[in-house]
């Protein structure tokens, strides 16, 4: 604490040193006295004695001032006089106009500061204490012959609490007059004044022990007790203090009221605007007034007609250490919510213009103005998805103080308490047990009572599947879902999904069967979420006059629409049927299975042997089907690959839940003797079956292969991604060239993501040199085994994904399982080489 001023006369320099046998100093700045008494003796009125401290060192002497009109100023935080023997550290004897500021003054067995027969004395910003082994001795005394004495902004400590006679931090003797005690901090002690004429006790923080914090005795007059904060000693402060109620009782000392005013002093005393903090169960009376003890403020206000603005402060102030090499810790720093904050009487007699630390404006009760040391405390929240169910939350904390405590309420009934080490980012992972939208609240608090909270809404990235339809939402031939007209070349047709036909808003992706028909030229269709950038991938490839379907799983734009881009230089008609949709709320998850054939009408697998007749249908058992390893219950939808072959004429197939009406939708369109496949995701009927309808006047064979199913018990959630091409055997980076007949390509799509259970891929074969079919299956070997040469030749399952003839370009969606090591195999079961193109549109994830 620096001096507030240094006078106008000569400056005499001294230094507080641990020992000084012979003083060779002259008082000059470069030759200071090492005995402070010599410096004081050398001063004349108007001089300033400047004492420089050195951390951990003190002057072992007792200094007596007998020269008036001088200033004694400590420089730094350790201008320290620690008297040897039972003598005061500082005695002002019969002097006037003396100021002592920023000094540390300590003694043993006797008061540290003695003021006798002196007037116009000012002690400001000092540190006054007794050796801890001193008991029953007042720390600072003012005798009855002294007047106009001010002690301000000074810390006073009477040493260890002891079981002996009670001692005061500041004691004013009978006969003293015009005394001001303002802005001081007293620890485990109090103020005693007897028979004083004019006493202002204003704006002090006093942490009392057994005796009263303020005790006015005798026949004192002109006493004002205002703006003080009076606190019980408590275990959170200095271990030296003691003086709890239990200790006082055990030592046969009274647990005195906070303020005692004798009968002879009550008429001349005013008390108001004081605040009282009671520790725990150590409740005591706030006042003993004129011989009557008042147990509550209300009783005092009614009985004594005083203290109209007194309050009980329920917020314990925080402790503070005031000087190096001193363990004294007193509750003095107000915390948010304290009744003492900004509630002082601005007109209180003796009120200072600045607080204990020199802070102004000074409007709080007690010695320290409340200045929020951490007004900038804040927490900002952001985050990213790390998986279908998990997020990574970033809490960016701004604080001037440590330690900081934090609590995170994740919105799912769980909480966590992360470690926070001041300002900076804390990254917190969390996994939700269920898909959904959650409100996360983060609360941080510092050690001075500030608390701030912030919230952020987190929606899990994964989506669950809801079976729907199949239902037609677009047909440009009839004007369903769009104007009745062919889609123009290089133009977009918008298809409403969210909010259409009972499909909720906020859907993340939709399963559409997109069919191109009556094409006036060759080209392709690309499906993507409205508002997203159009990807450089395709979903349906066609030539002039073809009718080509393909199943797509496509993200839905924020406005609920999907865009179908006609990448041809010719017009086409477009048809779209919804088979289901995904939302970020709990519904059905996906479980992949090893691809297996459930139905083959050519040999009687799953149904009676023989082609499906014109406009005929058959039911296929899904629930409990052992060939597909499907559970007996709980299946809401099934992922299939359906193939038409050996057809006697043109037509279409519609796959739908058994037990319902045949919907106006199609899954596969075929021509005479054409072999064509398409992926199908279809709801399962209440009887656990699906039905396949042949919308033709001629018969055909049908093959049904299962690749997975949806159920509430399944955990795998879908995450749509911006379509990305993951393989193109035509590209320069693919040095192996086209796929040869009977061969396969192993593709490690999920090698680093063991919790990914399946990928949504669009597979396209082109440059076909012969007829054949593609099979997609999980690989049983690891990439390490392939690289080391220890992998064997996998067994191709007896299923197909898409079929082609020489010269055709054929796409089809496949939901491919990556197997135990994240690798997917693509087999060319044809008579000639083909080029393979694979586009990824999303994946399923367990975590």
Mean pLDDT: 92
Q: What distance separates the N and C termini? A: 59 Å
Give the overall shape: elongated
Strand content: 35-45%
Largest sheet: 10 strands, parallel
Secondary structure class reads mainly beta
List the helices and strands and how they pair.
Blueprint: E1 11-15, H1 36-42, E2 48-52, E3 63-65, E4 71-75, E5 80-82, E6 90-93, E7 96-101, E8 104-107, E9 113-116, E10 119-124, E11 127-130, E12 140-142, E13 147-152, E14 155-157, E15 170-172, E16 177-182, E17 185-187, E18 191-194, E19 197-202, E20 205-208, E21 214-217, E22 221-226, E23 229-232, H2 245-250, E24 259-261, H3 263-266, E25 269-272, E26 275-277, E27 287-289, E28 292-294, H4 297-304, E29 311-312, E30 318-321, E31 329-333, E32 378-385, E33 390-398, E34 405-409, E35 415-416, E36 424-431, E37 437-445, E38 451-459, E39 464-475, E40 492-496, E41 509-517, E42 523-529, E43 540-542, E44 548-555, E45 561-566, E46 573-583, E47 589-600, E48 617-621, E49 635-645, E50 651-657, E51 668-670, E52 676-683, E53 689-694, E54 701-711, E55 717-728, E56 744-747, E57 756-766, E58 772-778, H5 783-788, E59 802-804, E60 810-816, E61 824-830, E62 835-845
Parallel strand pairs: 1-2, 2-4, 3-6, 4-7, 5-8, 6-9, 7-10, 8-11, 9-12, 10-13, 11-14, 12-15, 13-16, 14-17, 15-18, 16-19, 17-20, 18-21, 19-22, 20-23, 21-24, 22-25, 23-26, 24-27, 26-29
Antiparallel strand pairs: 27-28, 30-31, 32-33, 33-36, 34-35, 34-37, 37-38, 39-46, 40-45, 41-44, 41-46, 42-43, 42-45, 47-54, 48-53, 49-52, 49-54, 50-51, 50-53, 55-62, 56-61, 57-60, 57-62, 58-59, 58-61
